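Objective 1.3, modelling of assemblies. Example input:
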Amino acid sequence: MAELRQDPICGRWVIIATERAARPSDFTLGRGDPKGGFCPFCEGNEDRTPPEIAAVRPGGGPSDSPGWRVRVVPNKFPALSLNGHAVAPGTGHRRRAPGVGTHEVIIESPRHAISPTDMPPSDFEHVIRTYCRRAEALDADSRLAYVLIFKNVGQEAGASIEHAHSQIVGVPVMPRRVAEELERCEQFYRHNGRCLLCDVLAEDLEDGTRVVAQTESFVALSPFAAAFPFTVWLLPRFHAGCLFDMGADQEAELARLFQEAMARVEICLNDPPFNYAVHAAPTAAGGRRDECCHWHIELIPRVTRVAGFEWGTGFYINPVEPESAAAYLRNVTDRQVAERIARQPAGSGDGRAQARHSRS
Amino acid sequence: MAELRQDPICGRWVIIATERAARPSDFTLGRGDPKGGFCPFCEGNEDRTPPEIAAVRPGGGPSDSPGWRVRVVPNKFPALSLNGHAVAPGTGHRRRAPGVGTHEVIIESPRHAISPTDMPPSDFEHVIRTYCRRAEALDADSRLAYVLIFKNVGQEAGASIEHAHSQIVGVPVMPRRVAEELERCEQFYRHNGRCLLCDVLAEDLEDGTRVVAQTESFVALSPFAAAFPFTVWLLPRFHAGCLFDMGADQEAELARLFQEAMARVEICLNDPPFNYAVHAAPTAAGGRRDECCHWHIELIPRVTRVAGFEWGTGFYINPVEPESAAAYLRNVTDRQVAERIARQPAGSGDGRAQARHSRS
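Predicted structure (tokens):
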């Protein structure tokens, strides 16, 4: 089982996941090359993943059989595992704990899609609904303090499998970055009786220069102090701590705006590798605090590299003013967006996937 | 001039450096390819850099002429500039300030060396001495709160120029990561009357499993909660907040151990891209606190990729137990280390440089 350790100097938690790789030679070859040929995530290969946790199967049918739109399976090489008892980390400066937690994979499409923009909108809706249902289910697990939904697209963004998939990790201790955000949001709430992100959003909507796109209930923004060029935040206009507290109509609306935001980024930057992550309130066991958390999705195209300066200080250099990035993203036409979504033919990797993966 | 902005939610400072790049198309081609042919950092090309700030010129001679061992020049495309007045960032959740600061480049060798292990030990000593002298000089600038010395080797580690060089950035506000480390170290000091890192080091020396190499005054360690595989910390056995408070003999001893540590990492991992950064006390204007800061150099081989999980949580997954990494690094023989150091012939890039740069 993996082990959790906390850095005594900076407080960062690390999962020491020795099941995943071991010898120095594992790191000296090209890492994470897209596997040519066989894909364990494509429809028909259900027996090549661990048994499924959940699936969207509109026509019914047994688990681990074809006919699904979205499938959730345990990660075959999990960073954390629920086979064990969570133990509170000790005090002192050598804090460690067993690696109890969960690590699931959401296979987003039965076809070998690469990006969420390769999917028909109705399919991407299933992905968003699946995020909500899994987040809700894991929220109830008293062993987990925080649940993170995230996605890596392209090798440079950390993806080792090309087929469109997201991941959900549930951790037993509060991650440092989440704790920092919580602290700032709570402090603002105590002083002002309002949610900090509600205020930020209202100001950005009034100002307009950082708005990328919007619908009735959601907004896509270029954040004021983005650390990376062309970062986009998606967030609800209404206050909500958790992704899963919304109606079916809103889930569909979010899927639509999110796909549009990704299409704008892909068109502007010629299909960059990217990551996204859902920032939300801690689980019930982690202390929730819905009143001061406002969930948002952070989408980060990986077009600059993090280097010594960033690791040494936590200070970032962004060569593009967020207001300019927003203007570029807004200037992509609706027609370009419509043409991009679901444009990929059925079947395996095309030139676009190659471009995304071989970029250096 | 660049602008500093603080993220309202997580508190991270970002330099919005719009002089450096502008349009989306700047990010859509391969970025930072090593330039073939001409190198502005090689001896004889002194007129292709901004006028030098300092240099080691054992035989004497005018500024910006050949005959140097190490040269310090302003960064031609600085992230920050001292041409302006530092303004305290406002309060509220849109904190911004002019990008006042400094950004220098240390050219480590007149030859086209790639890694510090390509240099004769006597030349690398000059590099360490130059770090100390520049850190000391910038420490006295009342506009700077923190000074970071760092280095990027290889494209994947963020290097855009191949020729061995380091950078020094001085920033006018306290970086978040530094503030966090300070807070933990101060708290420990208040409770225990001792330096936290002195305690950590004493325990690691007694335990032995994480020690990589040591000399009379310095130790190379595999840190207990390393976020990245094969991370190495170099630190003094004696307590010191700043790199520049040591004698000439100790500077030479540090250079020797540091070069050995890099050689061990390069041999184990087959010349990986890497970063290192010097963590030290803030400047005089930044509040110093020498009693609870213990300087150390963090060396990070870039063999895994940071992805959505890490960005979303600040939680890291390390697939190699730090104790195993230390054993692999210790098991490199002294003879292998000796053969590696300064093995590169004079002249431009060889196969080794190619390998480091084209790795993906």
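The longest helix of chain A spans residues 248-269.
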